[in-house]
Amino acid sequence: MSLQIRAAALTDLPELAAWNAAMAWETEHKRLDPATLERGIRGVFERPQRGFYLVAERDGAAVGSLLVTYEWSDWRDGDFWWIQSVYVVPAARRGGAFRALYADVAQRAAAAGAVGLRLYVETENQRAQATYEGLGMQRCHYFMYEALLPGPAS
């Protein structure tokens, strides 16, 4: 079966939204507000400096996606590319879709002069952690903290 990676288009928004909602439920048992999610995805397409989505297709059918966003590193004088919102449909898991998406991101990042790739993963998601380590990523020594601010999207 043929696996292709392509840049997502706005026409992919319904699948991207459905997959983001599914991923939030699978990983955090969190229900996302559909209107907020759609605005958030649309915001990437409206402002490309925020990042971009890639879609994996097998035999012409979309089977997964991810989002890349950018983080400037003053220590390294360059951008880290963050891999976010990773989702592969259950029937396509363990079939190389994420590996192909990751390889495409790594190639694009190297061509753009990025200094590295980063992602975060749920602490209990051992399968994903093994996948990332198998691709050569290393667990770093940082913990992630957040503080949500009040506003229309909170």
Which descriptors apply to this entry?
single chain, 154 residues, alpha+beta, Aminopeptidase, 5-stranded mixed beta sheet, 4 helices, 5 strands, 35% helix, globular, Acyl_CoA_acyltransferase, Ribosomal protein S18 acetylase RimI-like enzyme, Bact_Acetyltransf, GNAT_dom
Could you characterize the architecture of this molecule?
This is Ribosomal protein S18 acetylase RimI-like enzyme. Keywords: Acyltransferase, Transferase. The structure is a single chain. The protein is α+β, with helices and mostly antiparallel strands. Helices cover 35% and strands 27% of the residues. The longest helix has 16 residues, at 13-28.
Short description:
With 154 residues, this protein is of the alpha+beta class. The chain has a single domain, classed as Aminopeptidase (3-Layer(aba) Sandwich).
Spatial extent as radius of gyration: 15 Å
Any idea of the CATH topology? Answer: Aminopeptidase
Q: How many individual β-strands?
A: 5
Structural category: alpha+beta
- What about the largest sheet? 5 strands, mixed
Into how many domains do the coordinates divide? Answer: 1
Kindly state the percentage of residues in helix: 25-40%
CATH superfamily: Gcn5-related N-acetyltransferase (GNAT)
Which geometry do the CA atoms define? globular
Instruction: Give the name of the CATH architecture.
Output: 3-Layer(aba) Sandwich
Low-confidence stretches: none
Number of helices: 4
Alpha carbon gap, first and last residue: 42 Å
Order of helices and strands: EHHEEEHEH
Strand content: 25-35%
Mean pLDDT: 93
Q: Provide the CATH top-level class.
A: Alpha Beta
Domain N-acetyltransferase: 3-152
Organism: Rhodanobacter soli
Protein name: Ribosomal protein S18 acetylase RimI-like enzyme
Pfam families: Acetyltransf_1
